[in-house]
């Protein structure tokens, strides 16, 4: 059941717009998720066929319909080009309901602070609009850039939640944990 307003379908930062994905983003979903570089640390996320991108888009869209939030497409304010994706997904971690923070950007967009900027805005949105759920990022130990993005967004290391995920050991970063 949808329990959030559609107000979050478009977010703005100093340089970026974050918008709910549409069918028109399926090609970008495939391009970014079929690049081995973007899935180096999380090979289970790799897409091999365009049809898988269509299925992934449908999953993302279903989540938007159900919860009123999800993954956003990130673009520069002055460009239609998709830089990447950043957003939140409800899941369970060690039996606790949480929001998972996700970000994946095209390699051509790396190193310009876009991921940190987007993740900071998404984190603020999640804390404000879904305050009842902790926000976590599950990061592979060798994925230094992702760890930096999590810290920049305001999450902190939560070693006691570390565990094995789809691709091996995940380090957990979190914010808004219950006391
Ligand atoms: C993680 C990812 C989104 C970061 O994108 P980005 O464009 O490099 O991010 P930013 O430009 O905002 O930089 C993030 C930080 O990482 C640092 N960084 C980037 N690449 C790095 C590297 N190879 N080694 C060490 N630090 C690195 C930057 O200096 C910056 O640090 P700062 O916040 O202290 O200034 C990008 O690498 C990516 O899409 N990776 C593939 C998908 C992925 O791994 N997602 C996370 C799954 S948990």
Rg is: 15 Å
CATH superfamily: Gcn5-related N-acetyltransferase (GNAT)
Overall structural domain count: 1
Can you give the helix content as a percent range? 25-40%
Question: What is bound: which ligands?
Answer: coenzyme A
Amino-to-carboxy terminus distance:
28 Å
Report mean pLDDT, rounded to a whole number: 95
The poorly predicted ranges are 1-5
Could you tell me the number of beta strands? 9
Report the total helices: 4
**Share in β-strands:** 25-35%
Main pleated sheet = 9 strands, mixed
- The level 1 CATH classification is Alpha Beta
Choose one word for the global shape. globular
User: Which H/E pattern describes the elements?
Assistant: EEHHEEEHEHEEE
CATH topology: Aminopeptidase
Provide the CATH architecture.
3-Layer(aba) Sandwich
Quick description:
This protein has 179 residues and is α+β, with helices and mostly antiparallel strands. The chain contains four helices and nine strands; from the N terminus they run ββααβββαβαβββ.
């Amino acid at each position: 059941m949808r329990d959030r307003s559609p107000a979050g379908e478009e977010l703005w930062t100093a340089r970026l717009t974050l918008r709910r994905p549409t069918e028109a983003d399926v090609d970008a979903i495939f391009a970014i998720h079929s690049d081995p570089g973007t899935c180096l640390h999380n090979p289970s996320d790799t897409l091999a066929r365009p049809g898988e991108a269509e299925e992934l888009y449908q999953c993302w869209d279903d989540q938007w319909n159900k919860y009123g939030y999800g993954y956003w497409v990130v673009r520069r304010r002055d460009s239609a080009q998709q830089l990447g994706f950043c957003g939140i997904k409800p899941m369970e971690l060690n039996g606790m309901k949480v929001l998972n923070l996700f970000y994946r950007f095209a390699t051509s967009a790396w190193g310009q602070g876009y991921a940190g900027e987007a993740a900071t805005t998404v984190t603020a949105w999640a804390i404000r609009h879904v305050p009842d759920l902790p926000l976590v990022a599950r990061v592979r130990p060798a994925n230094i850039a992702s760890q930096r993005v999590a810290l920049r967004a305001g999450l902190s290391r939560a070693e006691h939640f570390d565990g094995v995920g789809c691709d091996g050991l995940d380090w957990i970063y979190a914010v808004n944990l219950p006391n």
